[in-house]
Amino acid sequence: MAYQISATKLQAYNRCPYAYYLRYERRLTTNEFFGSAALGTSLHQALAQCHRDWHYREPLPDLRWVHHCWRQHSHGLTPNQVSEGLEIMENYYHNFIATEVALTQPLAVEGRIQGYLQVENLEFLIGGRYDRLDFLPDGLELIDYKSGREAKLPDETEMDIQIGLYYLALEQTYHQSLRYLSLLFLRTGEKIQFEATKQHKDRVQRMISNLAVRLRYDRGWEPSPGEQCDRCTFSRYCSAVTANPAPLPETQAKSQLQLVLNL
């Protein structure tokens, strides 16, 4: 049984090993709230169809093709969301399709990546998702659509972790190196491109090796105090934040961890 790891999990581990342990090994519940993402989901699906289903017998689709794709995926939205989404799709067309000489067919859209890494007699299953994967002359470009109202760049360290993990998995899947990870902000029309290097992959491998040691011997889950403590949902259990931390509740996660380690 492989131990599943993702960019989200590895970023959490990098922020604080103790919070990672409570969330993913002890499986304590959190009070995090995730709002509706209906508009964002519809935009992602419409853009996937736009690139996946275009026949590519002509250099470029016209705006009617973008309208068609939006109509297929805007059902169930409010009238304001439909109008807002249509405007975003039209802006996307003018910024990223109409400006091209020809639309290049992507390698894949709305896909999953998977890779493996074995450390300390533990097999790690690396997983992740992407919105679009383009083939370049010198490698691959992974494109992540961002539909939020704020064009905010991720933390640099967390971005490096995501790049390294995707580099590792894509290299195994496609036998091609990740050249760029690009964030495409749909509301502003900005595209921010991050260069991927072997150093990103090496760093992630070292992080997973460090995590493997802690999993193997079930120790070393010390907290890492920092800015993240202010919004940590596990602060009541943490001696670095609370003078008299609450005892950890009983969970069934411990036996599951031993099962992984013994295989």
N-to-C SSE string, H for helix and E for strand:
EHHHHHEEEHEEHH
Structural class: alpha/beta
Whole-number average pLDDT?
88
Largest sheet report? 6 strands, mixed
Q: Radius of gyration, Cα only, in angstroms?
A: 21 Å
Unreliable segments of 5+ consecutive residues: 32-36, 254-263
Shape: globular
Terminal Cα span: 7 Å
Structure report:
The structure is a single chain. α6 links the parallel β4 and β5. α1 packs across α2, α3 packs across α4 and α4 packs antiparallel against α5. Helix content is 43%, strand content 20%. The protein has eight helices and six strands, in the order βαααααβββαββαα. Strands 1, 2, 3, 4, 5 and 6 form a six-stranded mixed sheet that branches. It is of the alpha/beta class and 263 residues long. The longest helix has 20 residues.
